[in-house]
Amino acid sequence: MRGGRLSPRIVVAGLAVTISVQAFPAFSQTLGQPPDTMAARVEACTPCHGNQGEGTSDVYFPRLAGKPAGYLYNQLLAFKNGRRRYPPMNYLLEFLPDRYLQDMADYFAEQRPALPATAQSDVSNQVLQHGQTLVARGDPQRQIPACGSCHGPGLTGMEPGIPGLLGLRPNYISAQLGAWRYGTRTAKAPDCMQQVAARLTEADVTAVAAWLASRPAAINAAPAPKGAYVLPFACGSESD
């Protein structure tokens, strides 16, 4: 410093430090950064699907936790590719690589939060009985297989691609069965869910949705291992 004036070298060095801090704030904010974990990365999913994928109070957003990773991956791909249409999901997934979608699916498949308490049904006992019959025995005369023949005796699904049906709200179940019936939701061929749902009436859908939503949590809610039981017909989900 000469005569109260800073050396040009000091001025330049000071400017360089200021610019580097402004241009690269990460260097000045090393503390308090979120952890680089999948739990942190899927925070965008939690407002709709819960912190661990357990679901929320919104009846149209499903539980993700504990479903087979193959099933979850297929659904993420379907939203990314537009086979399933829901703008917020389509937008969130449009530019994510498939490998990352698999990592997301693996994360939610490993979560095991408790199933929500079942709500009191507002349908009649007769409707619930009809739903129980379709879930447990189907309707052979109309070529409708029992839900349990594909989704398992305990309705917990089977690896790698058949989801469990417990912990879902009746409105969500009804909406998805309607989507299968009208072709707005599709799956890998042979699309067995579309074939089954097309044979259901509105009354069938209401009954099945109400009875499934009334089921208590299973002692072991994990999906059955691949090949644990034989499906009644060929289904693309079985081989995913």
What would you note in describing this structure?
With 240 residues, the protein is an all-alpha fold. The protein contains 11 helices and no strands. The chain has helices spanning 8-23, 38-41, 46-49, 69-81, 87-93, 98-110, 125-136, 147-151, 170-182, 192-197, 202-213. The longest helix has 16 residues, at 8-23. The relative contact order is 0.14.
- CATH domain class of the largest domain: Mainly Alpha
Taking pLDDT < 50 over at least 5 consecutive residues as the criterion, the unreliable ranges are 8-29
Assembly state of the chains shown: single chain
Helix content: 40-55%
Task: Summarize model confidence as the mean pLDDT.
Answer: 86
Termini Cα gap: 73 Å
Q: Return the domain count.
A: 2
Please compute the radius of gyration using only Cα atoms. Answer: 25 Å
How would a crystallographer describe the biggest sheet? none
The class by helix and strand makeup works out as mainly alpha
Q: Find the CATH superfamily of the largest domain.
A: Cytochrome c-like domain
CATH architecture of the largest domain: Orthogonal Bundle
How many individual helices? 11
- Given the C-alpha coordinates, what overall shape results? globular
Strand composition percent: under 5%
CATH topology-level name of the largest domain: Cytochrome Bc1 Complex, Chain D, domain 2
Let me know the number of strands. 0
Secondary-structure element order, N to C: HHHHHHHHHHH
